[in-house]
Amino acid sequence: MNLRQIEVFRAVMSAGSITGAARLLHVSQPGVSRLVRHLELQLGVALFERRNGRLFATPEARALQVEVDKVYRGVRHVQDVAQHLRFGAHATLRVLSSANTALELVPRATARLLARFPDAQVGFEALPTREIVKLLVAEDADLAVSSAPLEHPVLDLREIGQWRLMCALAPGHRLLAAPVFDFDAALRERLVLYSPEAPQSQVIDRWLAERDIVPRRAVEVRSGHAACAMAASGAGVAFVDDLSARSFAPGRLVLVPVPQAPAFPLLAASNTHRPLSTLGQAFMQLLDEEFAALAAPG
Q: What are the angstrom distances between the C-alpha of 28 and each of 146, 174, 205?
């Protein structure tokens, strides 16, 4: 049976007559009669008994109706999904991010996306940079947000904004008592540092080298949020990206701007071979808006 036969058969069963079915389908009565006869010949069974100008469904027709109704519901579901594709409904989006953008930026954009598209679903993971690149290249994710450089020929990169390092100290730290914050003195404190490949390490190493300071390595961490926690607990002074720093619990940490701290790009990335869906495009727009809100003074 094809979809047209299913539609006509269901209409006849629903209306109880050829005339009623033709009226439901807005077609001619002879056309419906021909299609029903052809269907009976094709199946090799009588679907209707004709008595006194009326149709009576046979047991075979009623058995067939059960299955036809299942197919019809499936077709309606497909039609509904197709109709709502442009609105992002019934869609899924897989988002990857670096650790610092997973703290506020991506969750805020995700919440707004789901408020706009309540039937959509988002899969989210915070991963190291190399894993983000690997999954995007393999088309196992739709898009990513990264504070570290992403390098591969198939990646389409767009700058959302920029991030900078701030100095993070525990409340009551002695350096905070001075009328003017002594940046060089902060570099001579016990430091919470990062792995050598982290972007933060390159900047901090340059600051130390320019001042001929031998670092006092207290703790090595792999994320800005961990650096914030160490600094808040008094383990050392940390230089933390502002995305991580501003998401940390207020009152547990004092943040001091670093003079002339370099700016690093915050990137949104997707695969050029996998164009973004309506949902993905909306998410990109929300990332721009939420980053602007987070970066706004106050």
A: 62, 91, 83
Residue 195, C-beta contacts closer than 8 angstroms, at least 6 positions apart: 201, 220, 222
31 is written with which tokens?
A: 């056309």
Within 10 angstroms of residue 160's Cβ, the number of other Cβ atoms is 21
**Are residues 191 and 237 in contact, defined by beta-carbon separation less than 8 angstroms?**
yes
pLDDT for res 224: 93
Those residues with Cβ within 8 angstroms of residue 27's Cβ, 6 or more apart along the chain or in another chain: none
Distances in whole angstroms, Cα of residue 41 to Cα of each of 45, 56, 166? 7, 17, 80
Give me the residues paired with residue 134 across strands.
Answer: none
pLDDT < 50 stretches in the chain: none
The C-alpha atoms of residue 5 and residue 40 are separated, in whole angstroms, by: 11
Predicted confidence at residue 210, as pLDDT, reads 95
Check: CB of residue 62 under 8 Å from CB of residue 12: no
pLDDT at 68: 85
Contact 252, 230 (CB under 8 A): no
Question: What structural domains does the chain harbor?
Answer: 3-86 (1.10.10.10), 92-162+264-295 (3.40.190.10), 165-257 (3.40.190.10)
* pTM, to two decimals: 0.68
Task: Tell me how far CA of residue 154 lies from CA of 19, 97, 130, 145, 280, in angstroms.
Answer: 59, 18, 14, 16, 17
Q: What was the pLDDT predicted at 236?
A: 96
What's the angle, vertex CA 211, arms to CA 210 and CA 213, rounded to 5? 115
Distance of alpha carbon 81 from alpha carbon 119, whole angstroms: 11
Per-chain mean pLDDT for the chain? 90
